[in-house]
User: Fold this.
Amino acid sequence: MSALKVDIRRKTYDPIGSRQQMPVIENLSFEAAEAEFVCILGPSGCGKSTLLNLIAGLDTSYEGAIGFAPGVKDHLAYVFQTPRLLPWRTVAQNLALVLPDAAARKAHAAEILAEVGLADFADAFPGQLSLGMQRRAALARAYVTLPKLMLMDEPFVSLDEETAERLRDLLVALWRARPTTILFVTHDSREAIRLGDRLILLSASPCHVLREIVVDLSREQRRDPASIEGFRNANLPAMGGLL
Amino acid sequence: MCSGRALSTKGIDSAAGQMRSRALWTAVSFAALVLLWTLAAALIQSRYLPTPLDVWAAAVQAWRDGELIFNTGVTLARVAASFLLAMTIGSAIGIFLGRNRAADRFLDGWLIMALNMPALVTIVLCYIWFGLNEAAAIGAVAINKIPNVAVTLREGARALNTEYQQMADVYRIGRWRTWRHVILPQLDPYFAAAARSGLALVWKIVLVVELLGRSNGVGFQLHLYFQLFDVAGILAYAFTFIVIVQAIELLALQPWERYANRWRP
Assistant:
């Protein structure tokens, strides 16, 4: 059963100083199953972030329909491209903020913080952490709400490859321990193959779905760069120029 | 504060040393002022320029009579009441205007008019319309300060970060918690600016209000001394108030600002 059903006929925006409406998304539809890890792969500026904002309900002006399985819409988490932690609240307070129940806040937040390796930094302010640690905290904030759908907008950009790779491992571990539907937006095809059960390839703007590819590598195989490269060459040859 | 920031590389010893030398300079500078004043008073030899010692004696006398404490207390209560009133109403108006473009466009002209209304006009009109009473006095002071607070907080509300707002919306943290954890902390510097300039403005206007229509308080007392041409008395009250306002700045406003800024790296 699908957790999310996206069918956007048209999304436009008016650039400043122009009277003409620019189409960003046109006839884009796909579904995501419960607990599925879906990577949305598309060129920079094709409207991927706009798509996530529509699904998150941050932007409601579009033609089409976005359907959720019962309970999914109320249990949605979003890991933004920048960590967006409140700089005037400690890491623990940032996590507690998104939990509705006061009693659950402390214990649950501490547990997740330990899992992402930030147990010793619970009382630090985000400004005192490295970008990699801030991204861990943002991931912890998303997971602490036990979301049914998690939207991730290139959450590991501007990190060195080693740190990014560790965070990918962490994300997969969290996702396997607490299955949830993930929509992971990226422009890096290797990262997409590394993480996704399924890839959805988007065209340049105005974006629509070009192809869907099921990644049939095991989680262990994906830790080997050679097998990711092999899959990429076999399945995404035509995408070379685009991505 | 600024010395502390500039000194991070030199270590604690030199930071403490610099603070001591700064305190020393302040003391020297004030001593020089008192000395100059004493010399001028000795030179001019007029009852309209009392020596620092005369002023000190006048202050001690007023303290012993109890009138210094009473009048200063009454004035401070009026300052507190009108300050709180102006901060509350001014912030509410400012934040509303900063977040509502249509209302801002409509009310901007009113705000500019209010900003440029002479304090004296507001005071006189309040007394005429509402009578020579406490509510009119405090209201008049508050009305004078509200436009400044509103303009400052409007800037703050305009600069609110939409990314944090989106985060709050996605995670459904609710209205109250959005205000408390997301919006108000962003407005802190604007509250501090409004409070600081507000305190200085409010206490001066309170004196005018007291002079024009109250029978107690520092302003009323200054009026009495003015009729007697008692310059020592006038200066005794003035210095008392300067010391009190400086103490509020040092003991309340600055610690609060330090606390509000503790997260800044």
Summary: The mean pLDDT of chain A is 89. The beta strands of chain A are 2-13, 22-33, 37-41, 63-68, 76-79, 149-153, 181-186, 198-202, 209-214.
